[in-house]
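re: ur msg from earlier - yeah i can do the pyridoxal-5'-phosphate complex, just paste it... oh wait u already did. ok heres what im feeding in:
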Amino acid sequence: MYLYDEKNEKYLDVMSNYGVTIFGHTDKEITSALTQQLNKVTTLHGSFNNDARALASELLVKRCGESYRYVYWSNSGTEATEAALKFAVVTTGKKKIITCNHAYHGKTLGALSVTGGEKYRKPFTPLLWNVAFIEYNNIQALENEIDDNTAAFIVEPIQGEGGIYPPSESYLQQVRKICTKKGILLIVDEIQTGMGRTGSLLSIQKSGIEADILTLGKGLAGGIPVGATVINQKVGSAIFKGLHTSTFGGNPLACAGVIATLHKLTPQLLEHVDQMGTYFIEKLSGIKSPNIIAVRGRGLMIGVEVKENRNDYLKKLQQVKILAIPAGDTVIRFLPPYIIGKEHIDLVVAELEKII
Ligand SMILES: Cc1ncc(COP(=O)(O)O)c(C=O)c1O
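and the outut:
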């Protein structure tokens, strides 16, 4: 749970490097799995077979859900989005993508095209293809925007970078129904919400739905850079060998991290994420301050929306040796490692209460 600076000062980490170090730092099993793989083979192109990659692929696809068949490995979340967009276009033969205001899917050109936030987009417009932005959590807006040219709708189960906005209870189920009814693909971006962050392996598993294309990254490989685009049979059938490749994608080192990560994401740990998340949100909601507008989140993906500049609060938290991160323009974001306990949460809430 801790990081140490150059003076050996100890910091409580409740941001896990934007959601990557899900088991905390220097976890024994992750370190051991990675070290063993380092001593075997670390890099091998996807055109050669490799045991670690085969096992990681099989385990991941199985854990994601029944309808998934294949995984395309890359090295970051934004690359997982790139692959998702290309696969959607190839599968449907169409190029219009629907996305949401304040969405975050990455910053390479394709991903940036479906990412909200003028400040990131402006220097590069016009961006790619035909992209329509709609309001998040608005089913009617999605229905209205789908036309004959639409390939896919891309959506986060909870908007992360945008400011931690969970949708209404039935939104994702309704989204799934409309995409199926209108014959467009559903791309679900679980790069931040996935790998246990909200108390289930994937956040959409709680809604009982499956995507056509699923994107993953962040903590998937135990801290080693990784991206994964998981697809169903329909999408898999449309892709030909060599259409989209990456030299480092699916490297055995990252795959050893994936295998160890999946092994550690037990039902008990996911239950702990759920319980700690509920406790954290309850405690934060108990802070009485005119500077807090809202506390939102699911599992260990939590945002505190504040009236004034959140950077001041983040800096003050750092002064008392607590590391949190921003989201949107006004949100303090907590993405702690899953090993967090009540004692850590109590400390963070007590310090935040004093500061705020
Ligand atoms: C939902 C979501 N999608 C995509 C990305 C991009 O991932 P990366 O920074 O690994 O490219 C992020 C990163 O924060 C994210 O939260």
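cool cool. Residues 18, 76-78, 81, 104-106, 156, 160-161, 189, 191-192, 217 surround pyridoxal-5'-phosphate (CB under 6 Å). ping me if u need the other ligands too
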